[in-house]
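Annotated sample (chain length 361).
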Amino acid sequence: MKVLITGGAGFIGGTIAGQLLAGGHEVVVLDDLDPAAHAGLPEGLHAAARYVWGDVRDPEPWPDLLRGVDAVCHQAAKVGLGVNFADVVAYTSRNDLGTAVMLQALHHHGFHGRLVLASSMVVYGEGRYRCAHHGLVRPGPRREADLVAGRYEPPCPACGDALVAEAVPEHHWLDPRNVYATGKLAQEGLCAAYAREHPGCSVTALRYHNVYGPGMPRDTPYAGVASLFRSAYERGETPSVFEDGGQTRDFVHVADIARANVLALTKPEPAEGAFNVCSGTPHTILDMAAALRPVGAPDPQVVGRYRLGDVRHVFADPSHAAELLGFRAQVSFADGMREFSTAPLRAAAGPFPAFERRWPD
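Output written by the structure step:
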């Protein structure tokens, strides 16, 4: 099989490329080496893959890229919450416009193969909550006054009582609460619309939970929280844990994320629709910070700060992916964090290659 991976020189995309090549598949990569995630040409590129240095928003390279391609794995994205709302144009351009340009190119090419999209658990917003009196409820956005006062748990919208968080299934309501999340949901919709108008095309949207592992980008505003904590410890600093550290997430190793993509691309029958890609075992942010702490380092510092775009609890039900995709996470939290605590982060092997054109954000 010949697979095109957008963003295939990145943290997740590069791991997918390695697993596909190990399985005997042909890989073509399109990547713009966004300086927010890359300091230059990254280490660890795969000699057997073909790399094209370009932007998904540029229509020019697409006809050549798609020649002979059986499946597309769309990983290219600007990730994280960013610095503030001023990032809205960059996120919308890179993620939503980029996906639209790709789909237009697929349309002109007459592509009817498999399309695997890197989506995210952020489309759920707050996770799934149950009230002892009102059953399953949908809490509203957390109020800044509550966060300032240290009231981090969302209350029942009907009675104000405490709620119990539950694992989120794929059919749960969707409630994106920041720019990145809104764009991810738009990407799911755009890809689904393409599939409806192109019989034979199947779309698998993989809703990644909190990804970590070797090769993560270093300390940038766009890196994941695991990378931020790992970078702080590497500098000899104590990481700052927002709120009270009790926020619950599902941390999933990049090797498992890549394996879910390979299954979606190569299993005999396509698995259409959205799937949680998670471990099924939630942990708090403070758990993760403690697991990464080097021997002798001080405990993580709980600082009580907050970001309005953050949610309190979101962790997932893995059963749908296990049943239809055949995916179960294999790397445990303890083993994965132990490896990650000393694993190398993303480093440059050389300067940026020559680009014919770079898109302004």
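Annotation: Residues 88-109 form the longest helix (22 residues).
Annotation: The radius of gyration is 20 Å.
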